[in-house]
Amino acid sequence: MPSNHGVIFKAVPDGYPVLGEHMELVTREIDIENFSLGDGDILVKNQYLSLDPYMRGRMRNPNIKSYVKAFELGKVLEGSGIGTIVKSNNKKYQVGNEHLAKEMSKFNFPKSYFLGVLGMPGMTAYVGLNKIGKPKKGETIFISAASGAVGQVVGQIAKIKGLRVIGTASNDSKIKYLEELNFDGVFNYKTCNIDEVIVLTHLNINARVVACGMISQYNTKAPYGVKNLLCVVSKRITIQGFIVFDHYHETESFRKDIDEWLKQGKLKYKEDNVEGIQNAPEAFLNLLTGKNFGKEIVKIC
Amino acid sequence: MPSNHGVIFKAVPDGYPVLGEHMELVTREIDIENFSLGDGDILVKNQYLSLDPYMRGRMRNPNIKSYVKAFELGKVLEGSGIGTIVKSNNKKYQVGNEHLAKEMSKFNFPKSYFLGVLGMPGMTAYVGLNKIGKPKKGETIFISAASGAVGQVVGQIAKIKGLRVIGTASNDSKIKYLEELNFDGVFNYKTCNIDEVIVLTHLNINARVVACGMISQYNTKAPYGVKNLLCVVSKRITIQGFIVFDHYHETESFRKDIDEWLKQGKLKYKEDNVEGIQNAPEAFLNLLTGKNFGKEIVKIC
What is the per-residue pLDDT across B154-180, written as a single tens digit (0 to 9) for each? Predict the structure, then answer.
């Protein structure tokens, strides 16, 4: 009988989630033949699962409202994935179909790209840069976490749009990758002697800051106090946050552009793959601490 | 011989400026009849001087660049004023004329209004609300320092535009004034039990924050660390700073609107007057600590 691995949400973490304390790995056998489906249900065999920083935000007390609902204690941690339907009680979804199968057939890229450059992180990059940032050719853009699932796409689109691209990352392999992507300036923020407060004090007059996340603040009870917000006034800065979910009606133009750039070789995408659900909790922690490199994907045998 | 009082910039303050240490009161006699003017110079007898928070930003090391030049050590502290020309070596400015005289003749308000509601602070309110904030009827606006030179104008224009106006100030007389202005909600932030972090955590989704200054941060070596900036992402907040100087090309529409609202009684303006330059340093300090109430104006005999 096939076994089904899962990660259960055990307790709300204060800081970084710990396997055994906040997450628990479970293995259950599943009898597919006799598995009973409710009306409209489908049973999916996962091939790829996505690990994303926003998932940490779901590991919270459910009484705290946010843009995405809290995980339920005792239940499996949810995420986006790609899989094949092995059983269906829903006329819209036939056995053997892959979710997104129709869309995928139009593209000749790894399936996992639909969790990355052609999925939510890619769209975060696309919307954040184009719609929120509204870049003009010749401007300079600074990207933090520039080799990450979102950052690497932002930087490459920015190059396509004629911007001067400066990126930072946390180790030298990531920096080398950014150089390969022809970023105009790159530096390792862990080893360079830069001001702690680089972002605001080094911005130009009328600069725009586009904020899609603040991963360094997700796992701490003592959030960092930003002390130079006064620059917002003196430098006429605009800081704008956004959530990609609000912009999903623009999926078509996003997919069209990314598809074209991938085909033309103007856009590359670096993934960080782990095999098997049993390695997902560690990979998730690596994602939160910056030890991963590129879009985090769990491959399932 | 008439005497001329002045306040000299003696030293760059770290915190609040102290009279005697960073500012010095001087009195000089001036022989108007024999006073020699350079080519193009005029000699003005001041009637009103304006004290404004941005002046604190000019009391800095001149090597630090900002949107307005640093005061020169050893020279008189400068500010906006209204006066009469008593001697002129400039064909454009005739003796007896008041600066802004032509514009003033169109309006029937106290002259000092040109330093307040019809001047830089009023325009900060007007531009910040209309052009940066872009309010829509029915929205709620929260105003800090709501009885100040800028805040009281923001709140009243917001009422005219059909907004729900919430304001905060530092004592009960100010709160009473805000009630008289028909603000929809007012509270004394010194005595109310509000969250220290009210602004960001209590904002609505898609809120806009318009920042024209951060007076609490002008006189400290230990700036306040804002720890809840993550709300900018989760609540899709936009924070935008601006400097009114960048918008002076819109003076005409500003004056036209304010003039009309003043005439219709829709707009009131509270001034805090002190008499004589010798009282200006203390009034300036009161302005920085929030002990003043309304637009700070120095009347000169």
Answer: 999 999 999 999 999 999 999 999 999
